[in-house]
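>> received
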Amino acid sequence: MIIGVPKEIKQNESRVALTPAGVTEMLNHNHTVYIQTQAGEGSGFSDEAYKDAGAQILPNIEAIYDIAEMIIKVKEPIASEYNLIKENQLVFTYFHFASSEALTKAMIDNKSICLAYETVEKADRSLPLLVPMSEVAGRMAVQEGAKYLEKPTGGRGILLGGVPGVKPANVLIIGGGIVGTQAAKMAAGLGANVTIMDISLPRLRQLADIMPANVETIMSNQYNIAEAIQHSDLIVGAVLIPGAKAPHLITQDMLKTMQPGTVVVDVAVDQGGCIETCKPTTHEDPTYVIDEVVHYCVANMPGAVPYTSTVALTNATLPYAIQLANKGWKKACQDSKELKLGLNIVQGEIVYQPVATAFDLPYTPVDTYLKGEAVV
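>> returned
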């Protein structure tokens, strides 16, 4: 198969979808890999490194989309890429369709095959291609939150871990999944008083067993959230419903009950955010203030640490990308329930129910496209 890796063009996005090591693995399976020039520079991988690994370098994004049968990316295509994507071209990337009707309709219109990292799902309900970036984002949420708690950046002027004789900050984490767990570990390690909320009692029991003494677990519900935010210095939104829009657990009215200078970091921003006042921001302009509450809502947080993020992402995506390249998308999805769940849009039809529901658009069962003989 001919595989194309374009340079990411979303603002301040320095990750790349494939490392030179990943290129070598693809070539070992007799596939051809084209890399757009300078695609890996932001992550520390030169064109020469890709050439040495066996990739061919193309001069622009148009050439990549024109030649490739499968596009491997990191972030969702942006408007300038919509018309570059061809009918029946497989695009393997993070899409987060439920947060963008424009993107959803554009991919319907170009009749491509959209396989989303974030909805590839194992039998145990884990999301293997979301995990590495969730781990990065969870840890970064506390790192960035600690910075914006400083007075010069608009925060309350509180050191997250305190010092002897001065209480540490109170950190509230809503969601006990990968993001929330990693955020709790970071905040606890820095010495903060941490509260982590989740709607699953078994998950709270697990967290209570593994977390240090300065982390307490509380059932997530409207009353408990409303109470906890009044005394929290840093709040991390870490809620995920796979492929669907995140629920608003903190409303705008609730901001008025928070202390001035409180910082909220909404890691769920890619899926619409779990804080009502959340709107996507960039690393260039990461925060804004509403009702004296500092909002950090960068939509591609792991892009700030592109080397770590790129290597972690390729470690996770490469085995699936090889399956797709070896078998073609249809046979690979017939053989793998995990990949099958990654299909969101196929040849102009939405085949993932939560995306159709988000915009009240028609839904076609994915098996409609997976019946019969596979085409490689």
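>> The first strand starts at residue 2 and ends at 5.
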